[in-house]
């Protein structure tokens, strides 16, 4: 894709992605962190080349994820529970661009002014506040909470959260769908533009932050208003409720992901048995 070939793309990351595409050709099986119902055409195409199984959402698979906590960042997590409990239902916009993306100063300034114009409650994951406009934190006071890192699942699952401004990393998209929180999409590179296309164009559970060109505060405020208030917001919430139910149903005993995982185990055993037979015959 053009954005992968762009000269300003992250070189090391691109090398990793390129190497992964080469290595996956040697795999006997491909496990995908998605559900059959959402990406059936893509999964069918992949399955023509290699056995492919949609077993997602792996982030929430079984009780293992409830008892084993895997840290996603070296940053200490801030507990936002008390602050969120003081806010009305669906009134808080959660803003996070993940642990890798580095947003530039000008965009931070425009997003900050957009938040001021929108008057929305928000939690913003921001490593440093140096780039924020002078006086911004005083202006937002109790309306905004700025922290370097948090437990994203805990925040998204809060009844107070009504929207997610995201870079569209797959884990973030998945967690937002699981919690039924519609998205404002602001992708950067690798899989993120494709994920944006799915969220906005195919599944109708999010909107774009910018329709092209530079990030502008007026557009930021307008998109926040569309996501958080009015008929468009209601339509987005109805659609993402359906998607959230689809994800949860997939993990049920007779759900598609559970059936696919069971089939993978059977096929894996058969492949291992066949290889033992080949080794035995060759000896």
UniProtKB/TrEMBL annotation:
Parts of the chain that traverse the membrane: none
Gene3D superfamilies membership: Glycogen Phosphorylase B
Highest taxon of source: Eukaryota
InterPro entries attached to this UniProt entry: UDP_glucos_trans, UDP_glycos_trans_CS
Pfam families in the cross-refs: UDPGT
Keywords linked to the UniProt accession: Glycosyltransferase, Transferase
Coiled-coil regions listed in the entry: none
GO molecular-function terms, A-Z: hexosyltransferase activity; UDP-glycosyltransferase activity
Keyword Lyase: no
Protein family membership: Belongs to the UDP-glycosyltransferase family.
Protein name per Swiss-Prot or TrEMBL: UDP-glycosyltransferase 86A1
Species of provenance: Sesamum angolense
